[in-house]
Amino acid sequence: MANPITIRSVRKTYGDFVALEGIDMDIAAGEFMTLLGPSGSGKTTLLMILAGFTRPDAGSIQVAGQEIVRTPPHKRDIGMVFQNYALFPHMDVAGNVAFPLKLRKVARAEIETRVRRALAQVQLESFIDRGVDQLSGGQRQRVALARALVFEPKIVLMDEPLSALDKKLREEMQIELKHLHDRLGMTTVYVTHDQREALTMSDRIAVMCKGAIRQLATPRDIYDRPADQFVADFIGESTFLPVEWDGRGGASLAGSAIASSNPQAAGKGRHFLLVRPEKLEFLNGAEDGYNRISGTVDEIIFQGEAVLVYVRIGDGNRLAVRKGTRQGVFTSLPEVGQTVTLGLHRDDTIIVPEM
Ligand code: ATP
């Protein structure tokens, strides 16, 4: 039900503009791979090359060992889902989902069975005779998904399929899509610029910047071991403090020593200490394993599920500490104006090179 994809040295230019350069990627059979990056980083271009709508200037793409760069889109056995659904407005749900099968000249009885099966997969069986103009955004996206799955492709490509939906529905659909992928097992390449969506759904994430891959790793490694400042900044909430890295395991931050068991550093010299709000603790004693940063509480912001305590530290930077708002938390927090010692565990102390 799934095919592996091997991408080698793919390059794409538009005139003088280099949209992709030196793209290498191995996507395992059945893997959920996400291309994540800011606008213009080349995600859609790479997806269109995989789909066959864009021809790369150079490089190779193999699916299950077969070179496909010159294979036209309809012969690639690849299903596609787009952001804007691209449904046919004059057809009902059944007509839309049946379309790829008609294109492939599948027999009528077989079409009916497969359309019902695809609609069942996305929980839309009872909508089979509806016009697509009578559907909600989420339902339209499900129809688009059923249409992509109906010919049981071994690869599915999705370009920001959930970005038109509101936050709550988008989050529900993320989990639903993930479950569908786990059930059907097709190799999936998914484009998004939403880091949380990428972390939630993917087996691995390729973080792209200016037509190149900055890091390709599992969601946890991308989050906890970002390759550089660009990746760290794009994923999660972070403050970067300039440090002098000794090239071995220590750094100095405004004169104080900082130890890291998780450096992503390259060579000696100026680097950045990455500090995330959920990794900071308030220390009262001599707890082991922590780097200590002292400062003064500047501001406290209540956010509902969490409270953010902003602490101004010696070098003038402000660090946020996030605490979940379970009972008792408010009495344990320091007050504005109070001097505190922040603790950042050595294992959470991430040192990254400048981007
Ligand atoms: P977004 O998140 O905004 O969709 P993206 O990461 O998908 O961005 P691409 O659509 O792949 O980015 O575009 C990469 C770069 O290539 C952009 O700078 C874009 O302007 C440029 N580009 C894409 N298609 C063309 C084209 N047909 N002609 C010229 N430039 C193009």
UniProtKB/TrEMBL annotation:
<dbReference type="InterPro" id="IPR017871">
    <property type="entry name" value="ABC_transporter-like_CS"/>
</dbReference>
<dbReference type="Pfam" id="PF00005">
    <property type="entry name" value="ABC_tran"/>
</dbReference>
<dbReference type="InterPro" id="IPR013611">
    <property type="entry name" value="Transp-assoc_OB_typ2"/>
</dbReference>
<protein>
    <recommendedName>
        <fullName>Spermidine/putrescine import ATP-binding protein PotA</fullName>
        <ecNumber>7.6.2.11</ecNumber>
    </recommendedName>
</protein>
<dbReference type="InterPro" id="IPR008995">
    <property type="entry name" value="Mo/tungstate-bd_C_term_dom"/>
</dbReference>
<keyword id="KW-0813">Transport</keyword>
<keyword id="KW-0472">Membrane</keyword>
<comment type="function">
    <text>Part of the ABC transporter complex PotABCD involved in spermidine/putrescine import. Responsible for energy coupling to the transport system.</text>
</comment>
<dbReference type="Pfam" id="PF08402">
    <property type="entry name" value="TOBE_2"/>
</dbReference>
<feature type="domain" description="ABC transporter">
    <location>
        <begin position="5"/>
        <end position="235"/>
    </location>
</feature>
<comment type="subunit">
    <text>The complex is composed of two ATP-binding proteins (PotA), two transmembrane proteins (PotB and PotC) and a solute-binding protein (PotD).</text>
</comment>
<keyword id="KW-1278">Translocase</keyword>
<dbReference type="InterPro" id="IPR027417">
    <property type="entry name" value="P-loop_NTPase"/>
</dbReference>
<dbReference type="GO" id="GO:0016887">
    <property type="term" value="F:ATP hydrolysis activity"/>
</dbReference>
<keyword id="KW-0067">ATP-binding</keyword>
<keyword id="KW-1003">Cell membrane</keyword>
<dbReference type="InterPro" id="IPR003593">
    <property type="entry name" value="AAA+_ATPase"/>
</dbReference>
<comment type="similarity">
    <text>Belongs to the ABC transporter superfamily. Spermidine/putrescine importer (TC 3.A.1.11.1) family.</text>
</comment>
<dbReference type="InterPro" id="IPR003439">
    <property type="entry name" value="ABC_transporter-like_ATP-bd"/>
</dbReference>
<keyword id="KW-0547">Nucleotide-binding</keyword>
<dbReference type="GO" id="GO:0015847">
    <property type="term" value="P:putrescine transport"/>
</dbReference>
<dbReference type="GO" id="GO:0005524">
    <property type="term" value="F:ATP binding"/>
</dbReference>
<dbReference type="GO" id="GO:0015417">
    <property type="term" value="F:ABC-type polyamine transporter activity"/>
</dbReference>
<dbReference type="GO" id="GO:0043190">
    <property type="term" value="C:ATP-binding cassette (ABC) transporter complex"/>
</dbReference>
<dbReference type="InterPro" id="IPR005893">
    <property type="entry name" value="PotA-like"/>
</dbReference>
<dbReference type="InterPro" id="IPR050093">
    <property type="entry name" value="ABC_SmlMolc_Importer"/>
</dbReference>
